[in-house]
Design goal:
386 residues, alpha/beta, Arc Repressor Mutant, subunit A, D-Maltodextrin-Binding Protein, domain 2, six-stranded mixed β-sheet, five-stranded mixed β-sheet, 15 helices, 13 strands, 46% helix, globular, DNA-binding transcription factor activity, LysR_subst-bd, transcription, WH-like_DNA-bd_sf, DNA-binding
Amino acid sequence: MEIRQLEAFAAVMSTGSVTAAGRLLGRSQPAITRSIQELESELGFALFARSGPRVSPTERGFLLYEEVEPVLLGMQQIRASAAVIGREGSRSLDVVATPALAAGLVPAALAADPALPAQIHLHSASPEKVVHAVLTGAAEVGVTSLPLEHRGVAVHWIGEVQCVAALAADDPLAAADTVPLAACAERALVTMQNPYRLRQLVDRALQDAGIAVPRRIDTNTSLNALALVRAGLGLAVLEPVTAYGMPVDGVAVRPIDVPIPFHFCVITPQGRPPTPAVQSLTEQLALAAARLLPGFVRRDAREGDGLVAQYETGSNPGRDAGSNDSGGSGDRTADATARESARTGARRHQQPTQPAPSARAAEPTRSAQAAQADQLARRAPSRQND
């Protein structure tokens, strides 16, 4: 099996025809056909069903393409990095983040970063695959949501923000400074599909408040949720990174009267000293979050274990992490503080926000279990968001 064969196969998959694949790769049509035939002969099964000049992928062809595509992308990155090294002696920077963070936060951090290398690779993936990419060294920096409890990654800091409500700009509720969670009892609720992250916090808040939702629309990205809201299909409760980082015309974003926290963090491979470019981006991500996200709180990495435990036990991470007091009055104070912070921040989110004080990164000391991570990433559902 040769790279040229895989390139021919991927080109036909992408373009839908042998002729177009030849033009894409700068090869003749017979050369593409020969490469495909050689690959099929070596594999022992057909990759395409042929009907005259047309070809359509077989089921096995689709399955193989899922494995081939990341390999070829990796080869492209190697070629690009090698060219930069040969020309300037500098390195590239590989960043992977969940879709919400990749689109809503990372670009702002990159734009303000004075230490960017000549080549930058930014990919979006599910939270499980973000961790896997960092563990295996495929990415130098990962930005993902909690819960996160993986050995072999260094957590530099944890960000905490409150979820927001997104509703159509002409909705009567858009005139209010704050949207009551109880409004979900009167409208269709747009939520995320992944039941293990943000979705469980939203569901728990609704359950605690005794709110029955008449209809649900779930999706795998916050951008989809905003588009559904703009179309008038319901009210969305979602993380604020997409809502503020990628504002959508026709959609109003408001704080919610009940604190529903969204936690995210920046990770790098454990045991690998971060390069100056990685260190700079890590700090710029925190600064960008402080500018973009109302009420952003930068937490010390050592708080991660406690936050993960609270996700697992079903307690409210925002309520419990908001105060060092364990009594009921501390919980109520944390709730009030979170609500006021969200209201105040939302009114001034267009203005720069001073970043929280820097916290020293506390990195885990246990070894990475790369094999376990690989299995987890392969078993992970195709839910992309948060």
